[in-house]
Amino acid sequence: MARSSTPPLPLHEIEVPVPNGLSPFAIGTFDEIGSFTRARFPHRHDFYEILYLTGGGGVHVVDFEPYDIEPHSVYVLAPGQVHFWKDTELIVGRVLIFAEEFLLVHPGGLLPAPGGSPLLRLTGDQVDLVAGILDDIDHEYRTRQPGYATMLQAHLHILLVQIQRLRQAHPTVAASSSIVWRFTRLVTKHVLTERSVAAYAEHVGVTPGHLTDLVRAAMGTTPGAVIRAALALEAKRLLAQTELTIAQIAHRLTFEDPSYFGRFFKREAGTSPGDFRREIREKYQIARDR
């Protein structure tokens, strides 16, 4: 499947400082990783980000869904997800960032499927479990003993497995197979140029019917609905953060007819593009054209 030639969406992207020269991986406090970690404007990254919050207050907004900030909260953000902080007090905790190529194995099954909830709230022994693994990662990262890169990869793998186990045990979080994960990641990358369920099924090596069964079992929805939701999310990002007209956004999303785009968006989002733009900006006081 060819990568989209469409220019990147005009949302804020961050050049990440990577202490100690180890790339593509870093761990530290919010202050150590950089001020962008507390940014109050919508932005997104081209790497994975795990946030472990131990203090603070306010709201963390991920793809326009608000989550109250509470201690012992873990967020796993995928590349391309838009997030920002609103009405926040001092946010305390750890930030872990890494690129997909840093993982020991293919991430399918280890990371939440795109479109799922990014949040996991820890309770009881779960707090010590996750905090202990992060302590181990932080120690290896700072001491840099021989073989530390391999140790970091191993500890990261353990952390992701434990987070996935905890997510699967949570009644509101569905587990996803490797195939479902690959499908949803492909959709997030290529939805502007490919919207055929059959094409995605072929790319992940299954029939459209089998892909439908897997997605329905893991996510409670259909592949077509995942594709439409991803397209609607791209539209929301453009509406919230650019001054493109509705017709220009329709064109950017490869809709030939702006009126059809309007009907599509209202069906998916429950409101018109213009009303969404006005309401989301008023709700979050989103600054324009950063």
Automatic annotation (TrEMBL):
List the keywords (alphabetical).
DNA-binding, Transcription, Transcription regulation
Name the Pfam families for this protein.
AraC_binding (PF02311), HTH_18 (PF12833)
The GO terms this record gives for MF are: DNA binding
Q: Residue limits of the HTH araC/xylS-type domain?
A: 181-279
Judging by the UniProt lineage, the source's domain of life is: Bacteria
Q: What protein am I looking at?
A: AraC-type DNA-binding protein
Biological source species: Actinokineospora diospyrosa
Upper classification of the organism: Bacteria, Bacillati, Actinomycetota, Actinomycetes, Pseudonocardiales
